[in-house]
Amino acid sequence: MSRIELQGVRKRFGATAALDGVDVEAKDGELLVVVGPSGCGKSTLLRCIAGLEAVDEGTIRIGDRDVTNVKPAARNVSMVFQSYALFPHLTVRENIAFGLVVREEPKAVVRERVAEASKLVGAEPFLDRRPYELSGGERQRVALARALVRRPEAYLLDEPLSNLDAGTRVEMRTEIRRLHREVGSTMVHVTHDQVEAMTIGDRVVVLDAGRVRQVGTPDEVYSRPTDLFVARFLGTPAINVLTPQEARAFFAIPEGTVLGVRPEQVRLDGDGVPSRVELVEVAGSDAYVFLDRGLVARVATDARPAEGAEVRARFDREAAHLFDEATGRRIQP
Amino acid sequence: MTERRQLALMLAPYLFGIAALVAIPAVVTFGLAFTQYDLLRSPEFVGLENFRELARDDIFATALKNSLVFAAIAVPLRLGAALGLALLLHRRYTGVGGYRSSAALPTVIPDIAYGLVWLWLFNPLYGPINLLLRWQGDSPTTTAWGVQPPQWLTHPNDARAAIIIMSLFTIGEGFVILLVTRQGLPSELYELAALEDATAWGIFRRITLPLMTPILLLLFARDTIFSLQWTFVPALVVTEGGPPQFSTTYVPLFVYRNAFEYLRYGYAASATLLMFVLTALIVWLQWRIVRRWRKGFAVG
Q1: Could you tell me the CA-to-CA distances from B76 to B79, B82, B164, B171, B219 in Å, in that order?
Q2: ipTM of the complex
Q3: Does one domain contain both A153 and A26?
Q4: Is residue B77 part of a domain?
């Protein structure tokens, strides 16, 4: 059992509440991704689980144990840091073996486990190099191997991909997903990158100002956001938010509400509302079309209209979300 | 004005100072080392005669031995103390600023004032160190554990120890450099060690020491040079080169006395030149010895 459970966790730094009553559960063997903007408390959350920060209130359980006041080493978790935290004076092999060596494991065990972990992450070709001789992706593989080598109950990954270039990030995303499947342990992965969160997480926790906004599968949080913050935070370009006046041309919505519609749900064909194209941004296979009605549409690049063109925009009522204007909460359905 | 000219203009005061206060006197000293010169008559070229005399001079041999022994004992102790203080005081807690200032303060006190303070501290009769050592002693002249307290200013070995003890409190520069170095080490490495259950000794041995080694080696060489020169004021003010004869006479004091008391400028210059060569040789040897060791701690 390596379930991680946080109940009513609060953590303050002076006057700032980094975590404000957080209830989260990572199920046994789950890859839980915590996502949120910078300063939302996601790294603090991870550090509290690791024991690197003491919580002010609440309890943290790992497996069947209450570890709220247990020292970091006794929590039996491994952490991968954003900066990789590799020892510059040690070789890759020595870095991976660090946790086993300080725990004075027999040399044969160290050798065997290092070989196993480095094979798992593909670090074998550079075992005798030093960190400064490695690329960002290679360093991240070493950091992952070091986390794996001790076979802990759970893995904590603190923005492990944010220092990588776009290509390597995509590669390492797949790698983390594959490693999780092979290892099968609980992983809590923190990121500010919504694409990373949506692509690798079994479930996603959206955090804002130290509070959990929504927990669900990537599909749930994207398709049925519980509030405007979650709706706006997830998705590129951001969701269109229309006031009753702006929405009137499409649908009538009650006063005191706003209508949200994802850019990919906006269609520029058939008999919609006449609109003029103000700007077109091409982002590879997709293009973002900015219309004069405050709407953005995401269309296939091949089918994009020209800037200044007159188009007809429409979207289905079922694809739209309705939110309370004052509280931002979702109004059913 | 071109950038090159601006740079030259900005460097000029420093270069002028270096030339006037270091380079030119060094060249003059180098020249004087091969002469006999008493300030009254013109320098007379004597070839290597000064060096031959130095080789036969028992006082110079004593001064040289004293200087080398002092450096051999003081440098590791000074570096160890600076490192220990840096590791104790690198964290933020209430009052740490005061402790850091206390550690650095003795270094900024003028040498003469510093020497005079220690002259009082070391006084065998009424100095606070021996008063403290004699506290609760069986008799007014013995310590609580029944031995005589050190005779700092009258016994040769005690006097040498006194000079070494004095040097242990002028470690401000090394302390500040090591403090900043320790504060610059990534906190994640220590957090990782905490997660891996590393002991305090293990963290020091496996993380702190290797990562601080490049700076420690630099300070080691720098402190060796410093230690071979630092003894001048304490030996002059506190022990006057004794007791009873030359037991705390170090090369800088030997040079000073020959130049300014016996007016033997040429002879003093030759001793200075020899000390310069010897210092350079020691530092070069240190560098050679630790170079291979240092490779093991390369941080890239």
Answers
A1: 5, 10, 11, 12, 10
A2: 0.86
A3: yes
A4: yes
Total of domains in chain B: 1
A88/B211 Cβ within 8 A: yes
Distances (CA, A) of B98 to A66, B92, B181: 40, 11, 19
Q: Is residue A32 part of a domain?
A: yes
The string of pLDDT tens digits covering residues A63-90 is 989 999 999 999 999 999 999 999 998 9
Supply the pLDDT for residue B295: 57
Instruction: Please give the distance of CA B15 from its chain centroid, rounded to a whole number.
Output: 26
Distance CA(A37)–CA(A41), nearest Å, equals 9
Q: Which domain holds residue A273?
A: 236-331
Minimal CA separation from B59 to chain A, in Å: 47
The CATH number assigned to the domain holding A34 equals: 3.40.50.300
The verdict on residue B14 lying in a domain is no
Q: A105 with A189, same domain?
A: yes
Q: Is the peptide bond before A237 cis (omega within 30 degrees of 0)?
A: yes
- Cα–Cα distances (Å) from B187 to A234, A240, B42, in that order, read 32, 42, 64
Cα A129 to Cα A134: distance, rounded to the nearest angstrom? 8
DSSP letter assigned to residue A305: P
Q: Determine whether the interchain pair B197/A88 forms a contact, defined as Cβ–Cβ distance below 8 Å.
A: no
DSSP label at residue B261:
I
In a domain, A231, yes or no: no
Number of domains in chain A: 2
Nearest to B300 among A71, A88, A98 (CB): A88
The C-alpha atoms of residue A59 and residue A132 are separated, in whole angstroms, by: 40
Q: Do the Cβ atoms of A205 and A198 come closer than 8 Å? A: no
Q: What is the CATH number of the domain that holds B226?
A: 1.10.3720.10
Within-domain flag for A273: yes
Q: Is the pTM of this model over 0.80?
A: yes
Chain B residues inside the 8 Å CB shell of A71: 194
Pairing of strands A203-208, A57-62: unpaired
Quick: pLDDT tens for A300-331: 999 899 999 999 999 988 889 999 999 999 99
